[in-house]
Amino acid sequence: MTKQAAITVQRKDFPGEQFFVVFVIKPEDYACGGSVPSSIHGNVNRTWNLQRTKNLQVMIVPSIKKSVYVQAMFFSFLSFLSFYLGSVVVAFVHYIRVRRKASAGRLSPEDGSGIMTSSHPITAGTPEGSSYGAIDESSSSGGRQLSSPERRPPAGSDTDSSVEEESDFDTMPEIESDKNVIRTKVFLYLSDLSRKDRRIVSKKYKIYFWNIITIAVFYALPVIQLVITYQTVVNVTGNQDICYYNFLCAHPLGVLSAFNNILSNVGHMLLGFLFLLIVLRRDILHRRAMEMKDIYTLDYGIPKHFGLFYAMGIALMMEGVLSACYHVCPNYSNFQFDTSFMYMIAGLCMLKLYQTRHPDINASAYSAYASFAVVICLAVLGVVFGKNDMWFWVIFSMIHVLASLALSTQIYYMGRFKIDGPDSDLGIFRRVAMVLYTDCIQQCSRPMYMDRMVLLIVGNLVNWSFAIFGLVYRPRDFASYILGIFICNLLLYLAFYIIMKLRSSEKLLPIPLFCIVATAVVWAAALYFFFQTLSSWEETPAESREKNRPCILLGFFDDHDVWHFLSAAALFFSFLVLLTLDDDLDVVRRDKIPVF
Fold first, then answer.
1. How far apart are CA 88 and CA 82, in angstroms?
2. Contact status, residue 312 vs residue 271, Cβ threshold 8 Å
3. How far apart, in Å, are the Cα atoms of 472 and each of 390, 440, 466, 469, 484?
C-alpha cells in the first residue's frame, strides 16, 4: 500500500476470534511504484536508509451482515425481472390490438392496392419514368421464379433438408448478370435485394446462432477453469496482490473474494434470455403467418430473418458470464474475457443493421466470426506490445485505415466491386484507373450514390481520427480503445439509418421511439459510471489500491457494479431498437421501401 488499502478478515478463518495486524515497511519505494532503486542501475555502493518513518492509521470495522447480501440479491433479480413483467404487458396489449383489428377487418396496405403482384421485382423497384437498370421479363426469369408467389416453396419449410446450398439457386450466369445491373441502380428498393429464396437466406443467418453457441462453449470452459485456479491460489496463499479488486467494496461469499462484482452481471444473463424469448415469439408468429400464406408476410415489410437476433441474445448472455469470470480475479492475464463478446455484440449489431435493407448481400457467418477473431488477436497484441512499441501502432494504424477503405468500397458498390483483369495482370490496373476516373473525376461534382458517399466519408474521417489518435497518444488501455472504435462506428451507422429512415418519410412507432430514448439515457448514465476508475491492473497493486472507493448502492455495490447494471439495460434497449425499428413498414410493399 501507499496511501490506503483494505483487507477483509473472515471470521471462519479465526476460530478464536483474535488476530494480529502486522505492518512491514519496505526498504525501497520500487515495489509500490516508486523510483527504481540504485542497485538496479548498477550502483552497488548505495547506502541504506534505515530511518524510514511512516505514519499509519488503522481502522477495524465490522463487515456487512447477511441481511445485506440477501437484500442485494433480491434487488438484482427483481430489478431485471421487472423487464420481464414489462415485456408481458406490452405483448398482452399488442395481442389485444391485433384481436381488435382482426374483428374489425384488417387495414388496407398503405398504397391501397391490396395484394401485390411480385412477379416483376426488378421493374417494380424502378422509379416511375425511368428505365435505368430495368430488366426485361425474359432476361430475369430466374429471379422471378424465386420471388413469385406461385413458385414459392411450401410455407413453413425453412429447414427443408432438400435445400442445402445457395449455389443450387444462384449460379446461373443470368442471375449474376442481374445482380451487377440491379445493385448499381441509382434508386434501389427492397424488392431488388430480396430476390433469393428465403429458405436459403434464413439458413445462412441461422449459422450465426449455431456458430456463436459453439464459440461460447469452447471459449467459456477454459476461462472458468482458469479463474477458479486464480481464486484458489488467492485463498491458499493469502496473496491479495494477484487480483485487482476494489478492496473498499469487495464482499466475499464462500470462496469468492468479490461476490458483488459477480452478482452485478446477472442483468446481462437475464436480459439476454428475455431478448431470446422476445425474438422467439416474433419468430413463431412469423412462421404461423407464413403457413397461412399471409400476403403481408410474403410481400410486404422487411424480410424476417431471426438468426442474427438469436446470436445477439446469446452474445449478451455470454458477456455476463465472461464479465463475471473476469471479476473473479481481475488482472493482466484475463482482461480479454471482459471485452471479447463486447466486440462481437457491436459487430453483430452492425451486421444486423446492414442486413435489414440488404437481406441478399450480407456477410457469411464464417467470415464475420473470423474477423472478430482477428480483432481479439489484435486486442491481445495491443496490450502486450502497445505500451512502448511504436512500430506496433504504425502497423495497426495502417491496417485500420486500409480496412476502412476496403469495407467502404464494398459498401459503396453493394459488394459488386471487383478488380479482376480479363486479359492479364495489367487489366487490374486498367480497372482501377477506370473506376477512379469515372467515380472520382467524372462524378466529383455529385457522386452516383450520394447518401452512401456521405456516410462513408464521415465514417472514414472518424476511423482515421482514431488511427491518428492511437498513433500519437498510444493509449494504455488498448482493449477499451478498440471497443471505442466499434461503438463509434455502430452509433454512426445507427444515426445514419434513422436519419435516412425519416428522410424517406417513414415513421417511428411509439415502441421503437421509447427504446431509442431509453437507450440514449441509459447509455449516458452507464458511461458515467464506467469512467469511474476503481482499480487498474496496468499499475502496481499499491497504486491500484489508491483508486479504491467505498460502496455507493445498498452498501454492497460499487460504481463498476452500477455500470454492469446500466450497461445490461442499455444493451437490451439497443437490441430492441434494432428489432422494432422498421415495424412501421409491415404494411408497405417491398417495391416501395428504399434501400440506403
1. 10
2. no
3. 9, 31, 10, 5, 17
Grid cell, residue 372, equals 472478430
Residue with cell 471470521: 11
The pLDDT, as a whole number, for residue 130 is 38
Residue among 343, 338, 80, 354 at smallest CA distance from 212 = 343
What is the three-class DSSP state of 47? coil
pLDDT of residue 134: 38
Task: Give the Cα separation of 515 and 577 in Å (integer).
Answer: 6
Sign of CA dihedral 199, 204, 209, 215: positive
pLDDT at 439: 59
Helix axes 510-530, 559-580, angle to 10 degrees: 160
Enumerate residues 6+ apart whose C-beta is below 8 A from 16. none
Residue 53: the pLDDT is 78
Give Cα separations from 18 to 10, 14, 57, 373 (angstroms): 11, 6, 20, 52
Among residues 259, 270, 247, 268, the alpha carbon closest in space to that of 327 is found at 259
- What confidence score (pLDDT) does residue 38 get? 53
pLDDT value of position 128: 41
- Write phi, then psi, for 112 (nearest 5 degrees): 70, 20
| CA 135 to chain centroid | 39
Buried b (16+ CB within 10 A) or exposed e, 338-363: bbbbbbbbbbbbbbbbbbbbbbbebb
Q: What are phi and psi of 343, to 5 degrees?
A: -60, -45
- Positions of the chain with pLDDT under 70: 34-51, 102, 104-187, 386-388, 413-449
**Rounded to whole angstroms, how far apart are CA atoms 531 and 388?**
24
Residue whose C-alpha is closest to residue 314's, from 277, 265, 260: 277
pLDDT of residue 85: 93
At 375-413, the pLDDT tens digits run 888 888 887 776 667 788 888 888 888 888 888 877 776
